[in-house]
């Protein structure tokens, strides 16, 4: 496992998410990338019941890159890595921690390989509605983010506006050996910020019911709303 | 050789068949004509003589002689037919023998001819292409052989230069000088190798060296350079024989096998496969049998420059990536980083 | 509680328990070595540190989770285990049955559970031998207190005897396994009497 950097890809106004994804895929294919299957990172949020003090939020994340594992992140920052039987255990704890089905998020899309780089273009959705694009770039041969950050920046510049700094979470771990947990933490942060911006967007919208009605049929409508609040 | 026998047998067989056909035709002709034929055509002139000679009671004798004639004719024809058939059989056995030899040469592919669905399977055509590839490979190999035999890459000590000095010595002193082997790179003792390695270890603190000896006296060095790469170097005495470079998080150890080092399998990553190639080239460059310790030391110095593999931009194009690879080549003199295609 | 779906997906543990005094343990080990698989190898040993965490659920029932760490093989993953309420059943049922979820996890599980709101109830060291026969697992172990607290090299044993357990973990509905366990337990008589033991009745 190399170094992974996850970034949110902005959607310009007047374009649908699918258009942007198609454009990105075209860019990558012109660069010579080959499709190597699909991927999916999903996140389910559990909230603690009233008898747990202080109250906690628990995110359970699965990554198709580690299909037998399950990552449980508490809002304290602790990340437990375990096998997928943990999902069953969460069901037995349904009296203590409960999830809202509508808050299940996932980033799903195609996986590309370009030399030693792996690029994943994922469309993020909460339930049925589209919420944004996350791009994951992995550089396999290197394990220390600090060594290869400039290299990855140059690579990302080839098909997207490359970010100036690594992800907030990664900045504190630039000289440590990268682990799969670090990937999950980045996804968790991005999911949280997307969730927050969505919440803000729905609260600014005059009718909260509008969001649910926009649903799958017109995904761009939901995006167009969430964009202005982000900036 | 087999071919000539073959054609002889074929021609002999064909000739025999032709004659047999003629004979059979004659035989049937004779049989269809029967005895009447003899009286009318075959011994027409004789008949005249005989009839004139035996006027009385000659009719019977003539008939008898006719029958005898017929039988004897039949006998001669059948006898020659028999001999011809024997001839044909002998040539057939010859043919059968040589054809079986051919099928032996073809091996299993001869069986392809017996495939009823011959047209549908693509085995034959792919066999042809593979034969063509084989021929091409043979051709290239012979070319490579001639080229390589011209530029000697042999690393043994007995090259033309030492032979020349040997000859010179002989002529100078007028008597043959017994050539004594100097301490070459490959006959260092194990403790000597150990001490030199410990010396290098002190010299490069961010490079950890581990010496293992899975093949007896010759050492294998397991090197970890910072947190960038791992390498395995196989030494013969103090001459570097083989290098394999892998990523920091890849393993050389084979699972479930204690103290077993895999020096052959390549890295998963293109970068390190490239670096391995360059390292093997550098190993040949730094090779010096007279000062093996110096050679290994400069090789290590060169290898040590890879600690900046991912972070150093190319000296020439000042970029980090080319073909999605960082600068994988290091100059053997000044240790500058270059891309493979940017090399000076 | 969504108990039904849990029960369907979870595994069941079929178990019989018993105990044997120290002096006779050696004979039992010989017997087990002869009965179980890999009899030619020396019996496999284990030394585990078990932490028991509990939390009170809204309905008043406590939820218990067990965390096990191997002290012999430090590179093994930690083991988190949930055990459901044991079902004794009637006379016809040969073994105790309880639902069971096994999860292998990383070493920060203790921090994780306490941050989730669980409280450490008690902990102990379990040390002994493990045998396998087909799908069956047989353990002969001794329980030690951690005295003084935190001392894992303790020799404060709880009793003068060994705990003997025969168990199989399998998907729900394989009741034939219970019979298999019972017949195996028969072969260990009269050395050790393996029974269905309900911990609730012991209290």
UniProtKB/TrEMBL annotation, chain A:
Arranged from A to Z, the UniProt key words for this protein are:
Activator, Nucleus, Transcription, Transcription regulation
Q: Where is the composition biased (Low complexity)?
A: 198-214
- The coding gene here is MED20
Q: Does the keyword Ribonucleoprotein apply?
A: no
- Any idea where this protein resides? Nucleus
Which GO cellular component terms, listed alphabetically, does the Swiss-Prot or TrEMBL entry include? mediator complex
Q: What is this protein called?
A: Mediator of RNA polymerase II transcription subunit 20
Superkingdom per UniProt: Eukaryota
Just give the chief location class.
Answer: nucleus
Q: Which family does it belong to?
A: Belongs to the Mediator complex subunit 20 family.
Q: What does this protein do?
A: Component of the Mediator complex, a coactivator involved in the regulated transcription of nearly all RNA polymerase II-dependent genes. Mediator functions as a bridge to convey information from gene-specific regulatory proteins to the basal RNA polymerase II transcription machinery. Mediator is recruited to promoters by direct interactions with regulatory proteins and serves as a scaffold for the assembly of a functional preinitiation complex with RNA polymerase II and the general transcription factors.
Identify the stretch annotated as signal peptide in this record: none
Subunit: Component of the Mediator complex.
Instruction: Give the start-end ranges of region Disordered.
Output: 198-231
An example molecular function term from Gene Ontology annotations: transcription coactivator activity
**Pfam families per record:** Med20
UniProt-listed GO biological process terms: regulation of transcription by RNA polymerase II
Q: Which InterPro entries match?
A: Mediator_Med20 (IPR013921)
Automatic annotation (TrEMBL), chain B:
InterPro entries, alphabetized: Mediator_Med27
GO terms for molecular function, please?
Answer: transcription coactivator activity
The record's similarity note reads: Belongs to the Mediator complex subunit 27 family.
Q: Which organism is it from?
A: Dinothrombium tinctorium
What keywords is this UniProt entry annotated with?
Nucleus, Transcription, Transcription regulation
Name used for this protein in its record: Cofactor required for Sp1 transcriptional activation-like protein
Protein location: Nucleus
Q: Which GO terms describe its biological process?
A: regulation of transcription by RNA polymerase II
GO CC annotation terms, alphabetical: mediator complex
UniProtKB/TrEMBL annotation, chain C:
Cleaved signal peptide residues: none
Entry-linked InterPro entries = Mediator_Med18
Q: Tell me, what's a Pfam family for it?
A: Med18
Give the record's keywords alphabetically. Answer: Activator, Nucleus, Transcription, Transcription regulation
Q: Does the keyword ATP-binding apply?
A: no
Where it sits in the cell: the answer is:
Nucleus
Molecular function via GO: transcription coregulator activity
- GO biological processes: regulation of transcription by RNA polymerase II; termination of RNA polymerase II transcription
> Mainly resides where?
nucleus
Entries under Gene3D superfamilies matching the protein: Hypothetical Protein Pfu-838710-001 (2.40.320.10)
Got a GO cellular component term for this one? core mediator complex
The record's listing under PANTHER family reads: MEDIATOR OF RNA POLYMERASE II TRANSCRIPTION SUBUNIT 18 (PTHR13321:SF2), MEDIATOR OF RNA POLYMERASE II TRANSCRIPTION, SUBUNIT 18 (PTHR13321)
Quaternary structure per UniProt? Answer: Component of the Mediator complex.
Q: Which family does it belong to?
A: Belongs to the Mediator complex subunit 18 family.
The protein's job, in short, is: Component of the Mediator complex, a coactivator involved in the regulated transcription of nearly all RNA polymerase II-dependent genes. Mediator functions as a bridge to convey information from gene-specific regulatory proteins to the basal RNA polymerase II transcription machinery. Mediator is recruited to promoters by direct interactions with regulatory proteins and serves as a scaffold for the assembly of a functional preinitiation complex with RNA polymerase II and the general transcription factors.
Return the protein name.
Mediator of RNA polymerase II transcription subunit 18
User: Organism, per UniProt?
Assistant: Dinothrombium tinctorium
């Amino acid at each position: 496992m190399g170094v992974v950097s996850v970034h949110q890809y902005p959607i310009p106004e007047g374009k649908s998410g699918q258009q942007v994804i198609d454009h990105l895929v075209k860019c990558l294919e012109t660069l010579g990338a080959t499709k190597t299957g699909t991927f999916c990172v999903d996140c389910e949020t559990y909230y603690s019941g009233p008898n747990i003090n202080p109250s906690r939020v628990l995110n359970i994340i699965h990554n198709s890159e580690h299909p037998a594992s399950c990552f449980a992140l508490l809002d304290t920052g602790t990340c437990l890595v375990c096998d997928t039987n943990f999902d069953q255990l969460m069901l037995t704890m349904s009296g203590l921690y409960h999830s809202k089905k509508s808050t299940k998020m996932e980033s799903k899309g195609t996986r590309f390989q370009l030399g030693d780089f792996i690029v994943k273009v994922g469309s993020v959705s909460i339930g049925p509605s589209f919420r944004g694009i996350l791009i994951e770039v992995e550089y396999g041969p290197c394990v220390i983010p600090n060594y290869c950050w400039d290299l990855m920046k140059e690579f990302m510049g080839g098909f997207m506006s490359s970010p100036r700094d690594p992800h907030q979470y990664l900045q504190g771990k630039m000289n440590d050996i990268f682990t799969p947990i670090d990937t999950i933490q980045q996804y968790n942060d991005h999911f949280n910020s997307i969730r927050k911006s969505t919440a803000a967007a729905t609260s600014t919208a005059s009718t909260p019911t509008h969001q649910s009605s926009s649903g799958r049929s017109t995904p761009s409508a939901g995006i167009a709303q969430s964009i202005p609040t982000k900036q | 050789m087999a071919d000539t026998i073959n054609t002889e047998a074929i021609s002999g067989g064909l000739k025999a068949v032709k004659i047999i056909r003629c004979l059979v035709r004659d035989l049937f002709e004779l049989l269809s004509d029967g005895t009447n034929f003899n009286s009318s055509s075959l011994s027409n002139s004789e008949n005249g003589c005989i009839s004139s000679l035996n006027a009385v009671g000659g009719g019977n004798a003539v008939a008898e002689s006719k029958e005898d004639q017929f039988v004897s004719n039949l006998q001669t024809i059948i006898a020659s037919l028999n001999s011809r058939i024997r001839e044909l059989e002998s040539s057939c056995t010859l043919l059968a023998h040589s054809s079986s030899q051919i099928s032996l040469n073809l091996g299993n592919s001869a069986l392809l001819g017996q495939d009823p669905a011959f047209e549908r399977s693509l085995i034959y055509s792919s066999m042809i292409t593979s034969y063509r590839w084989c021929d091409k490979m043979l051709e290239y190999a012979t070319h490579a052989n001639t080229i390589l035999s011209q530029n000697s890459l042999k690393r043994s000590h007995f090259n033309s230069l030492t032979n020349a000095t040997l000859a010179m010595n002989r002529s100078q002193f007028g008597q043959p000088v017994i050539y004594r082997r100097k301490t070459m790179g490959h006959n260092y003792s194990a403790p000597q190798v150990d001490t030199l390695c410990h010396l290098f270890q002190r010299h490069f603190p961010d490079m950890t060296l581990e010496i293992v000896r899975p093949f007896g006296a010759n050492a294998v060095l397991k090197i970890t350079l910072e947190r960038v790469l791992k390498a395995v170097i196989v030494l013969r005495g103090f001459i570097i024989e083989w290098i394999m470079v892998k990523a920091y998080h890849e393993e050389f150890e084979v699972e479930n096998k204690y103290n077993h080092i895999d020096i052959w399998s390549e890295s998963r990553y293109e970068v390190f496969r490239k670096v391995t190639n360059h390292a093997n080239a550098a190993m040949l460059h730094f090779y010096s049998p007279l000062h093996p310790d110096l050679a290994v030391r400069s090789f290590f110095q060169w290898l040590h420059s890879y600690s900046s593999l991912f972070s150093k931009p190319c000296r020439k194009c000042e970029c980090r990536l080319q073909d999605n690879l960082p600068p994988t080549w290091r100059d053997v003199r000044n240790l500058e980083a270059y891309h493979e295609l940017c090399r000076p | 509680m969504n108990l039904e779906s849990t029960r369907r997906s979870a595994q069941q543990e079929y178990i019989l328990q018993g105990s044997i005094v120290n002096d006779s343990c050696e004979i039992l080990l010989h017997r087990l070595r002869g009965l179980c698989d890999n009899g030619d190898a020396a019996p496999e040993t284990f030394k585990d540190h078990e932490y028991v965490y509990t939390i009170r659920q809204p309905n008043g029932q406590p939820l218990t989770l067990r965390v096990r760490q191997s002290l012999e093989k430090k590179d093994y993953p930690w083991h988190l285990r949930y055990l459901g309420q044991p079902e004794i059943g009637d006379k016809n049922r040969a073994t105790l049955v309880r639902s069971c979820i096994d999860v292998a996890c990383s070493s920060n599980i203790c921090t994780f559970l306490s941050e989730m709101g669980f409280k450490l109830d008690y902990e102990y060291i379990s040390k002994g031998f493990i045998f396998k026969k087909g799908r069956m697992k047989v353990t002969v172990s001794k329980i030690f207190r951690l005295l003084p607290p935190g001392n894992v090299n303790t020799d404060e044993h709880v009793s003068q005897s060994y705990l003997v357990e025969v168990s199989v973990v399998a998907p729900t509905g394989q009741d034939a396994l219970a019979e298999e366990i019972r017949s195996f337990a028969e072969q260990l008589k009269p050395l050790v009497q393996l029974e269905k033991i309900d911990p609730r009745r012991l209290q």
